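Journal club prep — side note

Before the paper discussion, L.F. wants everyone to see what a predicted structure for a comparable chain looks like in token form. Sequence:
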Amino acid sequence: MKVIGIQPDIVWENKAANHAKIITLIEKAGPHPGSLVVLPEMFATGFSMNVAGIHDSDTRETQEFLARTAVDYRIYLLGGLVTKNAQGRGRNECLIYSPYGREISRYSKLQPFTPGGESDNYEAGQNLSLIDLEEFKLATFICYDLRFPEIFRAACRRGANFYTVIASWPVAREEHWVTLLRARAIENQAFVVGVNRSGHDPNFVYPGRSLIISPAGKVLAEAGREECWISAELNIEELLRYRGELPFLKDMRRDYEINEKDEKV
């Protein structure tokens, strides 16, 4: 499967400008039909706590943009946006649309970024999202989720062999981004695609550094700091061969909790 990561410099809280920017970058990337194109967290607005001003629940402007663009380019299109619940709290979501414009996956971020105030404005998701995408079993995650390996492992136990992590990850912790993406690939023997934004907003500066990583932790494609796109071909046979040669996952234990008693010295 061909995967393309789009790394834009997002215009703050301006959906129309960001939709246009994404089309320009997709045009430059030139995806083949059936490719998976991945856009960052909150790609149409930036990482804003202004739920009332940026949510997509009423107009569905960004959801319709994703559906329409998936059809126009005959691609699977994954991107992050904001909806709101009945109480007005946000949901930081990741959606995938098929080449026929049908929504085939919707994931709500399990781990809102508490240090940045996200948990004050957004509710935490409750469920993993796994989907059969061509020959892969894909699990989708968002930004701060990356710091919690247990949720990636839970997806692995359910058959995931491909992860996407869409993000608004700041430059202050740039090396954490790179290191943790590689760790999630290595420990789960899975392909990992991490797509971050570039540029800056009123609160943070972003390094870009989007990455596509093999199940062995090898970097297959890496972006710099500027607005750009990256791509790589993911091969399921390569993944199955690697897991077969080094069957680490078969040694996962499920009984950790029974040995957690305190030991007296």
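L.F.'s comment for the group: The domain at 2-250 is CATH 3.60.110.10 (Nitrilase/N-carbamoyl-D-aminoacid amidohydrolase). Keep this in mind when we get to the figures.
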